[in-house]
Structures are given as structure tokens and as C-alpha cells.
Write a structure and sequence with these properties.
single chain; about 325 residues; alpha+beta; 60s Ribosomal Protein L30, Chain: A; Phosphoribosyl-aminoimidazole Synthetase, Chain A, domain 2; 5-stranded antiparallel beta sheet; 12 helices; about 35% helix; about 20% strand; globular
Length: about 325
């Protein structure tokens, strides 16, 4: 006789994990949540008061091989925050407010302590973004995930009035690029970062280039949420376009919000890169083009504003504790002869 547990799936461990996280998940509930976790579906009643044409905006993403760093360091309290903030940023740049978040946590062997730490991260970030954690899935699949491996995927749903969607369609030559600092690598480029750094260092090492931080601390810094500065600019009608700098770096993500007749001219000398990027580039002899197309290089969000609005946008951001960097401008694409 072979039991499910002997085959590799521990149902009791799954039930224990759910029991541990229940109260933290409930702490994220907003007035729109209509059902507790555990139902077959999640129910959310949005408040549409004051909206003329409400539009739902959704995004799904993961945190990539940053999970490998978390596993190596045996620290799991940050990657859940990374996932929520990444997804929230992706709907916020469209002008939307996040409503609710759902997660998928796939693992080879379920350890309730690890699951609890991961979901604690989800809950922490959901609370900070005023976004309800309405449900999720914990899947134990030893035939899919190897020993110590796991994966995280998150989906966020937000709401925006149709007339307030930020598309970038009105971006024009002469507009100014304002960059908002990142907290580090965020959630993209970790395959390159790990390849370079772990050939030389362990997670506990403190290279002098990192100013006292360990490799673990530098690599696991939480991908920040930009919801507050985005809302401040959108509500003041100052944002012509917004780019969340994720996979593809500044060149590819700016291209997503700049019309075909325009191009973004970035002054890469306008800010000082965080030391983790310099260490990766020097240690791995990584070409500058690869650095720019792989990492955020210290700018996690770019706001496109009219030149006449730039000083007002800077004042608005500084009033809420941001330190915007004027990092370039929009140019017209020269027609080929």
C-alpha cells in the first residue's frame, strides 16, 4: 500500500500552512472582500462611486531566479513582498489602483515555516498597498520541483476610470524623463547576477564594494512599490507616461510608453548607480549594453512629464519624500532619407 504522503505530497502540511497564514491574510481584507479564504472562488465588490467608465486592469508576474537567492540564503520573508509590489507597479503605471491580489506557490516539498514566511511577505505588501490578498494556491509537486525548489506567481486586479488611463499616447518631443530610484536589482536580471557573484562569493560574504552589506542583503532587498508617487502624479494630472523598469531595462521598458515617432534619450550619467551594479559589471566584465538591457541600474520607475510641468512634478514628488532624477528627454525620430 502506498499513501499520498509516501508518494511525496503531505496534505497535513498543507493544512497546517493554511492555518498559520489565515489571520495574516484576513488582516489584508478591504471592505470589498466578501468571503474568507478557503472558498472555491474569491468574491470582491468594487466601489464604483464617482467613476464614469470603470475599467479593470490586471497583471500577472513572478520574481524569477531571485528565488534561488532566497533558497541559498534560507530567507523567505522578502520574495513575497517583491511579487506583490512588482504586480502592483504594473497596474499602477496604467493609472489604476490595485483592488486585490492572488498568488500561486508551487513547491517540491512543502515546509510550513517557509510557506508562512512567503505568505507573510504577501500580506505585508498587500497591507502597504491597500490591496486585499483574497486567495491563492499552494501546490506540492515533487515531480515538477526539485528538492528545495519553489516558484511564485502573482496576479493583481486594479480599477481605473477609462478617461484616466495612462497610455503614453500623448508623449511628445521635448517631454522630460524623471527617474525614481530603485532599491536595488528588484526582480529582474538575477540569472546574470547569480552567475557572476556566486562564482566569487557566498551569500554571507561582504565585498568592500557593497559598503558593509552582505551579498544576501544586496540581492534580497525588496522590490519597492511606486504606488504612492504614481498616484500623486496621476491625481495632479502630471504624468504623460509611466514606465516600470523590469526585464529589458530602461531601453525596452521606455519603448513601451513612447510613440513610434519618438525616442527616449537617456542620460546614463545623470545618477550614481548603486554599488551592486558596479560590482556585477566589474566582476563579470559585463558589457555596458548588457547592463542597460538587463538591469534597472538604480532607476525603477520613469515618469514622462511636459517640460513646463517638470518643476511642479519634482516638487510634488519631493513633498512625499521622493528624490526624482532628471535623466533625459523625448526626441523626435529622424526620418530616414
Amino acid at each position: 500500500m502506498t499513501t499520498y504522503k509516501e508518494a511525496g505530497v503531505d496534505v497535513e502540511a498543507g493544512e497546517e500552512a493554511v492555518d498559520r497564514i489565515r489571520s495574516r491574510v484576513q488582516d489584508t481584507f478591504t471592505p470589498g472582500v466578501l468571503a474568507d479564504i478557503g472558498a472555491f472562488g474569491s468574491f470582491f465588490e468594487p466601489d464604483l462611486e464617482g467613476m464614469d467608465e470603470p475599467v479593470l486592469v490586471s497583471s500577472i508576474d513572478g520574481v524569477g531566479t531571485k528565488l534561488k537567492v532566497a533558497s541559498r540564503a534560507r530567507r523567505y520573508d522578502t520574495v513575497g513582498q517583491d511579487l506583490v509590489n512588482h504586480c502592483v507597479n504594473d497596474v499602477a503605471v496604467c493609472g489604476a489602483r490595485p483592488l486585490y491580489f492572488l498568488d500561486y506557490y508551487g513547491v517540491g516539498t512543502l515546509e510550513p515555516d517557509t510557506a508562512e514566511a512567503v505568505v507573510e511577505g504577501f500580506a505585508t505588501a498587500c497591507k502597504e498597498n491597500e490591496c486585499a490578498l483574497v486567495g491563492g494556491e499552494i501546490a506540492e509537486m515533487p515531480d515538477v520541483y526539485g528538492e528545495g525548489d519553489f516558484d511564485l506567481v502573482g496576479t493583481v486586479v486594479g480599477l481605473v476610470d477609462k478617461g484616466e488611463i495612462v497610455t503614453g499616447d500623448d508623449v511628445a518631443p521635448g517631454d522630460v524623463l524623471l527617474g525614481l530610484p530603485s532599491t536595488g536589482i528588484h526582480t529582474n536580471g538575477y540569472t546574470l547576477a547569480r552567475t557572476v557573484l556566486f562564482d566569487e562569493y557566498t551569500v554571507d560574504d561582504c565585498p568592500p564594494e557593497l559598503d558593509g552589506a552582505s551579498v544576501e542583503e544586496a540581492l534580497l532587498r525588496v522590490h519597492r512599490s511606486y504606488l504612492d508617487p504614481i498616484r500623486a502624479l496621476v491625481e495632479a494630472d502630471l504624468a504623460q507616461g509611466l514606465a516600470h523598469v523590469t526585464g529589458g531595462g530602461l531601453p525596452n521598458n521606455l519603448r513601451r510608453v513612447v510613440p513610434e515617432a519618438c525616442t527616449a534619450a537617456v542620460d546614463y550619467d545623470a545618477w550614481e548607480r548603486p554599488s551592486i551594479f558596479s560590482l556585477i559589471q566589474e566582476l563579470g566584465d559585463v558589457p555596458e549594453e548588457d547592463m542597460r538591457q538587463t538591469f534597472n541600474l538604480g532607476i525603477g520607475m520613469v515618469v514622462v512629464v511636459r517640460a513646463d510641468d517638470a518643476s511642479r512634478a519634482v516638487d510634488q514628488l519631493e513633498s512625499i519624500g521622493e528624490s526624482p532624477i532628471q535623466m533625459g528627454w523625448i526626441e523626435a525620430v529622424e526620418e530616414s532619407s
